Each structure stands twice: as structure tokens, then as C-alpha cells.
Amino acid sequence: MRGFEVLERDGLARLGRFETPHGVVETPALLPVVHPDPERQPIPPAEMADRLGVRAVITSSYITWRTPPLRSVAERDGIHGLIRFQGTVMTDSGAFQQHAYGSVEVGPEEILGFQERIGSDIATVLDLFTEPETGFADAEAALAVTLERARRARAARPGLLAVPVQGGAHAELRGRSADGASGLGDVLAVGGVVPLMEQYRFVDLVHALAAARPALTPAGIVHLFGTGHPMTFALAALFGVDLFDSSAYHKFARRGALMFADGTYALDELRERVCQCALCATTPLSDVRGWPAAERERHLARHNLVLSLEEVGRVRQAIRDGTLWELAERRAAGHPALRAGLVAARQHAEIFLATEPDARRAFREVTAESRDRPSAVRFRRRVDAYRAGRAVGPRIPRVALRPEYLRGIPTEDRTGAPIAWESETPFGPVPLELTERYPVGPYLGPEEFLAPPRHRSPADVGRALRARADLEADLDRDWTEAWTRRQVEALLRFEYGPEVGPALAAPCVGERSRKTGRLRGLRGPDGPRFVVGPDGTPRPTFRGGGAVHAATGAGRFRVEVAEDAVPFVREGRSLFARFVQGADPALVPGSSALLVDREDTLLAVGRLALAPHEMRAMRRGVAVHVIAHARSTAEPAEDEDVAELPVWPPERPSDG
């Protein structure tokens, strides 16, 4: 079997793919729960595949095993023949039935062997389900049994194996279970959480995910058992969940309930056309109410599955766009319990920071709590480090860093001492020279419309400054060039630290866009060294990479390339994970990095697709996209506006 490959990502969330004997599964993916008895399954799996594009499902090997007619067909025709589905089939093991009924009549080796015989693409270990309220000693004993069963299963199972992650409500046990499962399973299935979701205990669900996530190998496919309601998909994906499974589409249909991304609605209470999906556009829900019970149930099950698959599509698109936090916040607004879960997620910022991209195209505020996203937490920390040892200066309202504004704001007083202006921003006071950096620069929230900075005229700024009786500075001087120099040094200091930033800035001249007046490039004596995108981050060209290389010590801002890949990287090809020898652990996805050989010779400048710890674990996929190399040092055309250059993800070079 070929390993899991990450194609796109937004923090912990990733678009990926993996291969099974019955096809490729692209993640995040919803695996509808299919009853192994075709007579009890409301939507035929073949219809799921043909009409809805479902490529993977999950069914019960235990129900199949204990039901002689089903067992006979499965052993003769395989599980795919039994449920009449030719895509990927994952089978569970009976652990939930054991939890619900107290026992099962099959042992762990027997049910695993049965899954092997019937051709399961992903077989699951028979674990011991642990209730959230289980005490530590009992949960620890159950975990020991589960891990021992998983070790035996791994030795016996050559194909893809799902190992459940248990531990109840105990963070230590969740972490221990995740670590053990990571060394044994291909699919790491976080279990024991169905009661939490049924009781809307999303805060406890988040704590369980936060306890397990750091110990889950990045090479594993993360499955969250029972994530059936579409309003939970975005929250789960924030924690890097790759697979959801849902029997909810049928369970809710049996109760006469419709699932939507913002909640659940009873069919009998609907009087308006609240849905225009393909099913409802053809058959209004008001008509469905009068159908016979069995026919109505099948229709509602189809509706619920369609809406669930649509939400997975929205999650996937949000990952591509770098807007998953926004989507999760919009979904959380639909229910207070879900909103509480998202508040709890923000309290675990450390879980996200290692894979949180250094910038995104925009920061759109959904609620005031948006300002506590992990990216904002990291920005505040970096601002504090930038300020260290510096005096905090006067504050002014947020203004655009354009020449027409900056010319009237002095950078120093009449004695030559610098004035450390602070700008009032939605993220707190920020040094004025850093207010083009993400998340402040591309921020979009209510303030932009209540008191938009672009509506403050330069004269307004001048009057505000002149009103300060304690301001002893030349207000009639044009300070634009002084601000440009300050911005150049500030951006490089913020990016590379106080020891390196000023040296990198000394030979550089800031260049502003002719269209917008914003700082868009830093030019050295040998040509362009840095490009400043809409996120305010200075991205090095190959020349700039050479300057960073010369100014920093070995290992810093670097990714070391294996000898076999050196010629390809030097020519501008992407660097794959299996050819990474080492990387600066301070780098994060989206960071610019120097690609070097083992002699520390600069080969290229790239942008990370994987975090350093992920590079060590992954054996497939691109680790760093090369964006500049020795043959890419031609200067932009004179009329080229670098403001149009993308921020993240970059255009993919040919991987050959």
C-alpha cells in the first residue's frame, strides 16, 4: 500500500489522498455507514457511488459475522459483493455493539481474520470502548488491552489497519493511546466520543481531540468515529480529522428530522421552502410529509446524505482557500454548544501553532472571538518580542501605510530620538510600521465599515497629530522616505530577528507600488531581494535568499536536501518529503526557507508545504515548493505590480 499524501492544507486540516485495493480515497471524506443487510439499507451503496460520488463507505463486520445469511454471502462474494459497492469499504469490529450490549460473541483475532477473509479495504481492531465517565484506572486497563490487541493485529494484518484511540476523558491516556496507535495503525480512529456528540458535549470532544492530536503521527489518516452531523465537520477538520463516518443521515430520517449545516429541523414543523437542493427543488418537503413512512424515511435519508456531502465539499474548499477557521466560526454560530467547543479549541492554541501557516490571503472576522485564532495569538507574541527593549510610544488610530498618510507622521522628534508610534488595531496596539503584516494588514471586520481607515484623510491625521501638545517634531517635513526605511528594517527584523534583520535591511531600498502606494519590494544593490505580498511578509528572491544565507548561521531558516535530490532542486523542482535531511524546527507551513545541501550551499528558496516534524514522518508528497533558484533571478518587468503575486499556496512548479 502507498502512504498518505498531503496535497493542500490549512493548519492541521489537510486535503490528502491514500490508495486502497478498491481505489483512491481523497480526504477529508465522509464514509456513510451502510447496513450489511441490503434490505435494511435505505440508500443502495451503488446509488451513493453513481449519483452522489461516494467513493468509500463503512459497514459492520460484526453484524455481518453474527448473521448467518449475510456471513455466507460475504465469505463467498466478499464484503463488496454483499453490500454491492465497488469502492473502498472500511469495516468496524463490533466494539460499539460490545459497549451497547455488554459483550460480543467474537474475539479480536477471529473478527480481524473475518475482515481479512471478506476483503475489507480497511480493517478495524476490536478495541474496548471507554465511556467519558470511566475512571482513570479502568480506562488505563482498557487501553492496555486495546494496544495489545492492536499489536497482534498489526502482525497479522498486511493491509490497511484502523487502530482506535481511546482513553475516555483522561488527557494523559488519550495522548498515550494516540502515541501507541501511531506506531501500529494506518488509520488512527479517535473513539469513545459518540456519547459526547449525542449529548452536545463539544467542549469535552475538543479536549479529547486536543489531548490526542499532538501524539498522532502526521503520516496517519485521522478518523473521528461518529462525526455524523454536518454542523460538526468544520470543527473536526480544524483538528486534522481526515475521515468522518455517518449513520446520522439515516437515524435522523427515521425520526423525521432533516440535517443542515446549521442544525436540525423536524419535517412536520417546516412550512416554507427552506431548502433548494436537487431533491427539494424537484419534490418540496411539504409534499414529502404526506408520503408513506418507509418512502418518507428513504427520501429524508437521501436528503440528509446529500446535505452532509455538500458540507464536506465546503470544508474541502475552505481548506483550499485558507478559510477553515471562518467556516468553523460560522457553523458554531448555529448552536451555543458548538460555539463553546470552538472557544475551547482556541484555548488550545499550542496544538495548532506548529502547522499554522505564517500568513493567509485575508483575515475575515466572523465574531469578536475570531481575534483569538491561533494565527492572531502567534502575531501578538511576535509583536511582544519585536517590542522587547523598546519604548512604547504614542497611539494613533489605524491608518493605511501610504505616502499620503506617512508624509505627515514624524518618525523622530526634534532631538533625533525615534517616536515609536503604536496603531490601534482589532488585535490591540501594534507598532505602526508592522500594520501591513498579517493579520492586521489584510484584516476585514466591522471596524473597516464603521470607521474605515481609507476614509481618514491625510489632513485628519495631521490635525490629530498637531493636537498633541507634547509632540515636539517637525510636522511640516515630508516623512515618507523615513517611514520607508523604518518599514524595511521593521519587516526584516520582525521576520528574521533583531540580530539579522538590520543587517539585511541596511543595503535595501524600499519600493512602493505605483497603483496603491504600499511597500511591495526591497531592492538591494544587485537587484530585487524581497517581494512584499498583500500579507505584508517579505519573501526572498534567490538574491535575497543569498543575503539571508550569508547573514544567518547553519540550520537557521534552512531545509537540508538529500544528495539525490540536489540536482533537481537546483533546477527548480519541488522537494519531496523523503528527500529532506533536516529542517529548522521554527519554520511553519507557508514559511520561506533556504534549501541547502549538506555543505550548506544555497540551492534554492522555497515555501514550506509541510511542517518540519511532518517532513520527518511523511514518505510521500511535496515538502517544499521551490519558488526561486539560481536561474530565476531576472527582474520583474517595469510595469509589473508585485501586489498581484499570490501569498499561499504558491503556484506549483512542475514536479517532473
- Terminus-to-terminus distance: 22 Å
**CATH homology group of the largest domain:** Queuine tRNA-ribosyltransferase-like
Low-confidence stretches: 634-656
Spatially, the strands of the biggest sheet line up as 6-5-4-11-10-9-8-7
**CA-atom Rg in angstroms:** 28 Å
- How many strands, what sense, and barrel or not for the largest sheet? 8 strands, parallel
Task: Average the pLDDT over all residues and give the rounded result.
Answer: 91
What spatial form do the alpha-carbon principal axes imply?
Answer: globular
Report the CATH C-level class of the largest domain: Alpha Beta
- Total E-strand runs: 28
Q: How many domains?
A: 3
Helix content: 25-40%
The helix count comes to 26
- Which architecture of the largest domain does the CATH hierarchy give at level 2? Alpha-Beta Barrel
Query: What percentage of amino acids are in beta strands?
Result: 15-25%
Structural class: alpha/beta
CATH topology (level 3) name of the largest domain: TIM Barrel
